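Feature request disguised as a bug report, sorry. It would help if multi-protein outputs had a clear separator. Right now it looks like this:
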Amino acid sequence: MNAYAYLIGWRIVRFLPEKFIYKVFNLIGDYVFKKNGRSIQRLRSNMQRVSGVRDSALEDLTKAAMRSYMRYWCDTFRLPDWSASKIDRDVELINPEVFTGPLDAGKGVVVALPHSGNWDHAAAYFLGRGYKAATVAERLKPEKVFQAFLKYREELGLEVLSTDMRTVPTLIKRAKEGFIIALVADRDLSSNGVEVSFFGAAAKMPAGPMVIAEKAGVDLVGAFISYTETSIKITFEKLDYSVQSQADFFERELRKHPVDWHMLQRIWLND
């Protein structure tokens, strides 16, 4: 999606009838899939890696994954207008005690997530229950799009930090103060990622969640978000202080729900 599409989405999509606009976004996803550009080729390659399917089954999975990605964007544009009851409706939690237990005891938790399902919906769900959360914003271009994302996430109640030398110390401080520290962690955006085994091949993932959790003395928890017919499902698992533990959790969950992994970029080192 280009910059104008993002900005138009926030201004228009939220006001259109729900059933109509989700059908439109499905059609957009189908159109992009049919064009078979570089992003779709990468998505197909990633789907094959995590599912093992080929031929027509791989085409069906890739098309469905693109529809899931477009559902994320349609949700994103409409989420600011959702009521608390709509945010809460039908959310399914698996093993939530490893996440909410420390928070209810006044301790922070660092959460490592992949790009799956709708993590903003998950944030809104827990922020609505009185928990505090902080995250880091990936710098987007152009600046107008980045500022729109920043405003969107801050309006949800998230404290959003930009990436600079103060980011990690601030996140450690927030974790010690009882915050949820939510970090998307399946793709390394720096040159400092840790090499892991992921679906039997080498990939790099960020060490940030592990480092922050260990230095703050709080639990590192994996969270995987997948779509259900009407809402989202969030699966939690307490992790060791290791990037490989993070990768192993992502792999286990992706084997169950590959369709909701919105990864249109390169992950594996040999790709």
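(second protein starts here, but nothing in the output says so)
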Amino acid sequence: MKLLLAEDDALLADALTTQLRGSGFDVQHAPNGAVAEFLLERDAHDIAVLDLGLPMLDGLAVLKKLRLRQPDLPVLLLTARDALEDRVVGLQAGADDYVTKPFDFPELLARLQALLRRSQRQVGVACQVGRLALDDQAHRATVAGEAIDLSGREWTLLALLVQQQGKVVTKDQIHAAWHDESEVGAGNAIEVYVHRLRRKTEGAGIVIRTIRGIRSEEHTSELQSLAYLVCSLLLEKKNGTSVILINSVNRPRYRVYLERIILKSGWLKTV
């Protein structure tokens, strides 16, 4: 389980990191609110622990921004503020639990495990393509049941391609999904992320194709099932004929793909 720990007290952060890792968590530490916000946006996490008194950007501000992007990520607040109104404000901002300092680690661990159990009961597969399954609530992707590690942008791009599977997705659509205007048209940022997704989804039974020169777009991406592409490879003109043999394709779904391709290609005859 990947956990983000946002804590500015170096001694406490080191102690918690050691104990949490010993309890099976993959801990990522942020020493201030700005770093916490960056890591939460860039990487996928299963749970977050936020100190309210973070420098640069306090924990409450981090939490409010996080809830706009990830409303279902379990979040536990750490704070030395034990007043009732402080706890109420934190919970109303979107926290799932609240622990005041000082605390015993077994209590913190028990609360984290309870939040994770509650979160996992709510998990449901939103979409499946081939052996790739996406859980939209947890922002988690699996290939044949094995979780794959995705950054925030990788998750957003993969979810967009799956949602639009079989359709062309343009650069502008990708940047819009990233809510990022700064990199529109800049370099090969999208190509880098597409390359990463191809590598991470290897064996999933899907292919992310790059299509160039469509509607003046330098680059577009399209996700299709491997079955469609296999059928495409079967369509080879031999000796200049317009005859495509599809009787040997014994799976009806593949035959449908072939027939669609034939119609689009303008080839005149099937037998």
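Even a blank line would do. Unrelated, but nice: The chain has ten helices and 14 strands.
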